[in-house]
Amino acid sequence: MTYGTEHSIIGRQAERRQLAAWIEACRSARKGGALLLTGDQGIGKTTLIRHTTHLAQAFHTVRVDGVPAEQSLDYAAVQRLVRPLAVGVRRLPPHLAELLERLLLGLLPPPRDRSLTAVAVLALLARSSVRRPVLVSVDDLQWVDAESRQVLGLVARRISAERVLVLAAADHEAARLMPGVAVLHLTGMSDRDCLRLIAQRHPSAVAPAVGEVLVHAAGGNPLVLLEFLRTLSPSQLAELPRLPDPLPLGPRLTRLSLAPLRGLSDDCRRLLTLLATEPRLDPPMLHRVAHMAAIDPAALTGAEAAGLVTVSRTSVSIRDAALARAIRHSPDLTQRHWAHELLARVFAARDDDRGGWHEAALSTEADAVLADELERQAARARRHGRPCHAAVLMERSAELTGEDGQRAGRLVAAATCSTMAGRLRRAAHLLERAEALDGADHPSLRGDIAFLQGVLSLHQGTPDDAYHALLTAADVLADGNAPLAAKALAAAGEAGLCTGNEELPVRAALRARALLGGSMTLDEPDAQLATDCLLGVADSLRGLPTATVRLRTSVAQAAQAQDPLVLTWAAHGALFIADDAHARSLAARAVALARRAGDTPAVAHAMQYLAYSECWLSGPDSARLVATEALRLARGTGQIVGVRNLMGMLMLAAGLAGDTETCEQYADRVVDEAAEHGNGLACALGLWGLAQVDLASGRWEEAAAKLRRLTRMKPGHPGVALQAMPAYVEAAVRAGLRLRAERAAAAFARWADGVGQGWPTALVAQCRAVLAHGDPEEHFRLALRLHGPRDRALEQARTALLYGEYLKRERRRAESRVQLREAAEIFRRHRARLWLDRACAELRASGDNATAGTADITLPADSALTDSLTARQREIIRLVAAGATNKEAAARLCLSPRTVDYHLRRVFQQLHITSRAELIRRFGAEAVRSR
């Protein structure tokens, strides 16, 4: 399987560097060796072998790939290895030459000469490598005959002194076939490389959302990804709603999935068919079913030895979900019918509810009794937190229902369960089927369908589309189901916020007021809470004084809520009053309730807000853990909007931690694609993360540009824009954009005055200190007093850093070190690397080299002149040697360009340097290492 041309591979940079170094060591240092590539089928082993062959063009390459048809022919692979090198056989000692000549004639050596055969092959390779090195490539080692594997293994372990390389590849479970040889295990390709592969093969046909789903489903396996692209139609690749669920395996993937069954007995395969048809069998029940089918249960031993099944005291299951699915959907209808019929009889004899499902699988016409039974089982499965099983049962119940109205209701119920189970595309298809039925025009059913379509749009569409779909759902529900209408409006408010248009959530709130009428109350507490949160957020956006009181009341009452979605909205509301602690506790409770109910999309949704609050309360590392887990869930369920939001959250955490690699990894998909599709929350979070990197690195103009875009762009997010204002104030002031900084500080102060407590009031004082024309010390001290012990520690550290930098500029070095040490300690505790570097640089400049915590640049040890350099001069050398101009170094160190120029002239005099280029040559490497 290839995922690139012969000379160009997508990804695998680390593996390619390792193989290139391996080839070069053999070519230049006469150092041989062997390497075994392992990994799943289709992971790219063949491509790397071909790439290595291309790198080794100066080598004599011999290919000895495994062939299934020759697996039973002893020494078949050795014969193919010796034949291209046969000219060298005559130069071997007579007894070795005779052995290989007989082998070429098809005369096999006796078993006692196996070791001698390996010695002869080793001698032949050594002789052949005299003129030029030899590369032996062995793909599909698992299909090589056993005798040849023994010979190749003996040779591979003894060629280190020869100019010979042996590169073999085997499936993951076949790595034991060449013991004692170094192994390079291939894992899945990165997301970025998978997306590049899609772009290369289908440059314009695959929608970005579809690409995200396919990349996740492929698990980094290029073969699986390319098979999806070949199997799916252009219309399915162009629109996410058209993408089938589950994704089709296709003939090639089915064959690959079923390949492990080769060599298993017929009885073992039949037992695997039973396990695939009924995944919830325990060992005693499997024994009963096997005995009824006249199968010895011990036949499963072969599958267990091959690692295909897992057996415990409580369950027996097929390990690989793809294998189980391939067995379930195999073209052998007779075997599937046999399995359902047998299981139905066994379960019916024991009065087990599972019999109803298998009986229903055999039914070909409407059956009201079976349909009712499946509906009861679905309700029970949903109560026990198994919505996926409930969805399957309810869908089959609908198929067995004759009356259109009842069938439509059951399809909608199946869609609800599918949504909870994270099968969003399946839910959309079920709703389409329900809408097409005559009975779907009932008002309550239309309202349920409209609400579910709005929720699906919130997960998979654009925020603007979701907003309008949810408003439509609220209109349909208003007369018959006011509580659900209120929840639809609250969801519309959240979607409206993500567009960056503050008017949209305000309009949703006005609809909610009209829905409630004069009473302003609802019978359902959770719906009332959702409405109060929506109204509070809308009031906050309008700058009304009632907002804070309303939101604090709602947040206090939210502890009793039982709906994870409502709890998530309450957590969102808590962020609008700067209550990170309540936001975290409410989001954590939402996650717990959603997990208990098996509602995977709700879990991922709530974890977005949990990650955000964790970022400020516990630090970027904690946020990264939460967001990474949520991203895995969101990608698994196809929540494309959530995927982008969580990538943005990871960028914010990475920006605070100084992880530029993660920021760059997601930047294209978050800042550009999310903005293109109207997802303002993801775009705002991503820009904030990128700006944090610039701000910590002293790139004031770049930080100011990103933060200005964040605070003014559409789409954007009003809440994120507000909370990023203090960072914008600092960047704008340092970039010389004072008027913009003053406007931003005023907007932030209006919101902070409404909140009236906590970290916003501290940051207002910080902004005033940064903007002060005269002495800012009073504002800095007030800001530090207002920072609470449980408030945002990173913001407190930034305040201390700014205060310390001011004191240092005022030559109050002892006082500045107190603030800078405090800032450095917080940054160190939260692993905010770039911010820590900035604090440590200021500490060094203030004369505190003992506690700075980062290594200074290494100056030549044999030059006594460098001892007289001050800490400030060393810092300037570091920046200039790394390529900074005087102006950039001045901005980074909060100095004037004239001061930097003065220090550089003194450095040139003391070190007898005559040019800037000489300084860079002398200290450039050390400056790069110290960064």
List keywords for this structure.
disordered N terminus, flat, disordered C terminus, 931 residues
Task: Give me a quick take on this structure.
The protein is mainly α and 931 residues long. Helix 24 (482-499) runs parallel beside helix 26 and helix 30 runs parallel beside helix 32.
Describe this structure in words.
By secondary structure, this protein is mostly helical. It has 47 helices and seven strands. The strands form two sheets. The protein has a five-stranded parallel sheet, sandwiched between helices. It has a two-stranded antiparallel sheet with strand order 6-7. α8 (208-218) crosses α9, α37 (725-734) packs parallel to α39 (759-771) and α41 (793-809) runs parallel beside α43. The longest helix is centred in the middle third of the chain and has 18 residues, at 443-460. It starts with 12 loop residues before the first helix and ends with a helix. Residues 1-7, 853-864 and 926-931 have low confidence and may be disordered.
Contiguous runs where pLDDT drops below 50 for at least 5 residues: 1-7, 853-864, 926-931
Total strands: 7
For this structure, the quaternary state is single chain
DSSP helical segment count: 47
Q: From the alpha-carbon coordinates, what is the Rg to the nearest angstrom?
A: 34 Å
Helix content: 55-70%
- Largest β sheet strand count, sense and barrel closure: 5 strands, parallel
Gap between N and C termini: 41 Å
Major β-sheet strand ordering: 2-3-4-1-5
Beta percentage is under 5%
Counting helices, strands and paired strands, the structural category is mainly alpha
Mean pLDDT: 87
Q: Which of globular, elongated, flat, extended, rod-shaped describes the shape?
A: flat
